[in-house]
Each structure stands twice: as structure tokens, then as C-alpha cells.
Amino acid sequence: TQLLEQSPQFLSIQEGENLTVYCNSSSVFSSLQWYRQEPGEGPVLLVTVVTGGEVKKLKRLTFQFGDARKDSSLHITAAQPGDTGLYLCAGRLILWYSGGGADGLTFGKGTHLIIQP
Amino acid sequence: EAQVTQNPRYLITVTGKKLTVTCSQNMNHEYMSWYRQDPGLGLRQIYYSMNVEVTDKGDVPEGYKVSRKEKRNFPLILESPSPNQTSLYFCATSPGQGRSRYGYTFGSGTRLTVV
Predict the structure, then answer these.
(1) For A64-100, what is each residue's pLDDT tens digit?
(2) Residue B108 and residue B15: Cα distance in Å, rounded?
(3) Out of B4, B41, B59, whose CB is closest to A1?
């Protein structure tokens, strides 16, 4: 079973500050995905990174996949109160073998982010 | 509108009474999966299906059953629910078989309480 260590678990900062969330593993993943989840709702996909070293930007959010495809980071610039929420990283591992395959997401435990006005 | 529909959203039941949580998708996705989310443990995979009539165990399959008789539906069955199955359950889908660059689309969740 693969493990994803996500840090920090909780983060409360002031509006306008920058922050970085880290996701680390000893396992290599086929891809690394980031989700955001609101209370009582299902996770919503933010981005998928596939290639080692890949960087993707989504407005003020920057996502990076480590060169060895074992770790990832989410950086938020000039955080806004609307960024408040639970952020989840998830590694997708796809394996093919004779007669079938295996495919699933391993989730980190999440980062509870609060941006105070 | 592309969506994953779970029913019911909330359910309170008693120990041992069989129940089914339904999941339906309208995106023609081949891959479907069930997760449970618990405080301090995060999201864990219960079962998944890479195509019709193909299902496999995830990390926490004990006490659950699934079936995939048609592409759009993937019900989760609890034959004899126990209190340790009280949790928030999510169905998720993804296009294609083993296409790593695609993310998952999650349903809105089913909050199950077993007393």
C-alpha cells in the first residue's frame, strides 16, 4: 500500500500571504492529482500532473510534480478568503498485468486551509 | 450536465439490516470506484471497477460488495452493516482504462450511520 504524507495538516494565514502545501511519498505514481473539498461535498479536481518536473498554473495556484514522480507541491500566491477549504493530494497508480490491471487513488490526509480577511 | 449521482445522501440504519447505496454516471466512463472518508484516516478505496463485469478490491473491502452489470451503475452493498461502517461514502468515476492524466469525478456523498 502506497502512503502519501501531506503537510501541513492545518494552516491559518492572513489574506494576501503566500503558502505552500507539500505531498511526499516513497512510491512512484502514474500521476499526482490535487482536489479541493467543501464540507459535506465530494472532492473536486483542481489539476493532474503526469510528467516528472511538470509545473501547472491555475490562476494564483501553482502545482509542481517532483522529478522522480514521488512528491508534489501546491503553492498559493496572495491567498484570498475564497481559498479556504480542504486540499487533498492523491497519487494515482496504474498497474497492468496478465489478465487484468489495478487502478486507484491513494489520498493524503488533507490540508485544512483557513484564509482570514 | 456531466454528473455522478449517489443515493441516498443520508441514511441511518440498524446493525445487520442490508442496504444498498446507488451510484449512477452519465459520462460513459469505464472506471468507477467507491471510497469512504473518516476523520483522521482520510479517503480510502473500498472497491473499483475498470469495466463492465470487472470489479476488484481496494484497500478496505471487508464488509462490502459491489456489482457492475452495466456501465453507468455501480452499487455498493452492505449485506450486514456494523457500526464501524458509519462513514461518509463517495462514488467516483474516470474515463478510459488506466488513463493516468484524467482525474476523478466524485459524487456528492452518502453519509451513513449504523446504530
Answers:
(1) 999 999 999 999 999 999 999 999 999 988 877 777 7
(2) 24
(3) B59
Q: Is residue A105 within 8 Å of B58, Cβ to Cβ?
A: no
Say if residue B75 is exposed, middle or buried (CB neighbours under 10 Å; 0-12, 13-18, 19+): middle
The answer to whether A30 contacts chain B (CB < 8 Å) is yes
- Sheet with B4-7: strands ordered across: B4-7, B19-25, B76-78, B65-66
- Distance of alpha carbon B103 from alpha carbon A20, whole angstroms: 22
Which of B4, B101, B105 would you mutate first to test chain A, the one with the most A CBs within 10 A? B101
Non-local (6+) Cβ contacts of B52 within 8 A are B68, B69, B70, B71
